[in-house]
Amino acid sequence: MGRVAEDEVRLVARGLTRNSWRPVLRARFVAVPGGCELVGSLRCSALALAFTAVWLAMDGLFILLGVAVFVAAMLSGGWSSASGPLALTGAAVGMGVFAVGLVALAGWLGSRDEQFLRA
Q1: For the segment 22-65, what is each residue's pLDDT rounded down to a tens digit?
Q2: CA–CA separation, 21 vs 12, rounded Å?
Q3: 3-class SS of residue 18
Q4: Is the pLDDT of residue 69 over 60?
Q5: Is the backbone of residue 79 left (phi > 0), alpha (psi -120 to 50) or beta?
Q6: Most buried by CB count within 10 Å: which residue of 18, 93, 111, 115?
Q7: What are the boundaries of each domain within the chain?
Q8: Which among 45, 40, 20 is positioned nearest to 30, based on CA atoms?
Q9: What is the pLDDT at residue 61?
Q10: Whole-model pTM?
C-alpha cells in the first residue's frame, strides 16, 4: 500500500496487524541511460522513531532521577526513606525493558516486510 507520484514512491507493506515500526520505502525515480532507477531507503516512519526516542529519553531521565534521589535518601535517612526512590527506579527500568521489547517485537513482526518491499 502506498503512493506513487510522478517523481517519487512511498510504499508500506500491509499485514494482518497494525505495526507503526514497519519499514517504509521512500524512493525517487532517477533517469539512467535506457530507463530509470528507483533510488531510496527503507526506514521506520518518523513518528514511530520520534515516539520511541521520547519514550526512551524520558525513561532514562526517570532512571537517573530515581538513582540520584535513592542515593541522597540513603545518605541522609537510611533504607526506610530510600524505598520510594528505589521503587521509582525499578518502575522506570521496567518501562525501558517494556519499550525495547515492543520495538524488538515490532521489528520481528515486520522482518519479512523489507524483503517484500525490495522485491
Answers
A1: 777 788 888 889 888 888 887 778 888 898 899 899 999 988 98
A2: 10
A3: coil
A4: yes
A5: alpha
A6: 93
A7: 2-45, 46-109
A8: 40
A9: 92
A10: 0.63
Cell numbers standing for residue 71 = 542515593
Strand pairing partners for 29? 38
Task: Return the percentage of the chain with pLDDT > 70, whole number.
Answer: 85
Provide the pLDDT for residue 112. Answer: 67
Runs of H (alpha helix) within the chain: 46-77, 79-109, 111-118
C-alpha cell at 119: 522485491
Q: Which of 5, 58, 49, 54 is nearest to 23 (CA)?
A: 49
**Angle, in degrees to the nearest 10, between helices 79-109 and 46-77:** 160
Confidence band of 118 (pLDDT split at 50, 70, 90): low
Q: Is 39 in contact with 25 (CB distance < 8 Å)?
A: no
Residue closest to 64 by CA, chosen among 39, 84, 89: 89
Residue linked to cell 517485537: 105
**Pair 67, 89: CB distance under 8 Å:** yes
Alpha-carbon gap, residue 63 to 93, rounded angstroms = 7
